[in-house]
Amino acid sequence: MISTTKSYPLARAIGQLWSPNCFRNATRMAFIEHRLGTTHYTVKRKDPSLDPIIWLHGGPGGTHNPKGPVFSLATDRSVYAYTQLGSGRSSDLGKRRWRISTFVNELHELIRAWGIESFHLMGGSWGTTLAVEYYLRHHGKGIQSLVLQSPMLSAADWQRDANRLIKGLPQETQTVIKGCQSLGATDAQVYQQALASYYARHVLRRPKKLKAMLSRKNPRGAAIYRYMWGESEFSATGTLKNYDTTANLKQITCPTLVVCGEHDEATPKTGKRYARALPQGRFVEIEHASHAIWEERPHSLRRAILGFLASQD
User: Fold this and answer.
1) Ordered per-residue pLDDT tens for the chain, 313 residues
2) Domains in the chain, number
3) Is 224 inside a domain boundary?
4) Does 118 share its domain with 106?
5) Closest Cα partner for 282 from 247, 309, 256, 305?
6) Is the pTM of this model over 0.85?
7) How far apart are CA 49 and CA 177, in angstroms?
8) Distance CA 99, CA 96 (A)
9) Which active-site residues does the annotation give?
């Protein structure tokens, strides 16, 4: 579906540099220039005979962590992760390109530059949206399996779950959320405090890590997040507000693992429903975790994913 009319020597050169037969057991950060911009990525190289993992971060507007726990999956196979255009150290992205197709096309450019023909595609949160869209738009070509951690496959499902979870907050907090959203006062301090209360239960249940996450500055990525999603995790008001791909799940024929945290804003109940809709879907719930499972229960998540991959080999 992609028409490339211009040659990008740098993308070709880096694709050769990182061929599957070089730098085994090495971790490297680099950049790839392609027709959409320049993407910052990290790869931890292992056995080139095994299909690698490609990990897609959340957002929209998030970043990958070059030293993050996702690279603990590189026990035997290589792991690739990157920061999507418009965020972090990747190049700017004009507002007219803030749409799903841009990020699907970016992923395709990277896969070609890396010289990967067969792989396991995994994502967290918004990354699951991108993973499923890539599978559907490319008819599953090269994808041996999918891992969908804390999936966002329907904005309506997400909003419905969020509304229910908000009802579990103190009444005063619920009133603040409802009032500020109705007035458009989402920058008010009381709203930010209410947001933090929700996040502490359903996004990241580690106080110090949550504080660091909420204070982290990523203005370019934040603009994409607000435009495509909304002002907060529980307010789908952006361009994705009508997104729903659940009717297409029956077209995904590869083995697919759906993972949710026990207290996840992407609720286990919804995750189980998605797994049932997938022809080869499986579901795992991670105890004592919410949405940021890699930050809360990394060993449990790693064990679930590696066990799933072992069953595919």
Assistant:
1) 322 223 344 444 344 344 444 445 668 899 999 999 999 999 999 999 999 999 999 999 999 999 999 999 999 999 999 999 999 999 999 999 999 999 999 999 999 999 999 999 999 999 999 999 999 999 999 999 999 999 999 999 999 999 999 999 999 999 999 999 999 899 899 999 999 999 999 999 999 999 999 888 899 999 999 999 999 999 999 999 999 999 999 999 999 999 999 999 999 999 999 999 999 999 999 999 999 999 999 999 999 999 999 998 7
2) 2
3) no
4) yes
5) 256
6) yes
7) 51
8) 8
9) 125, 264, 291
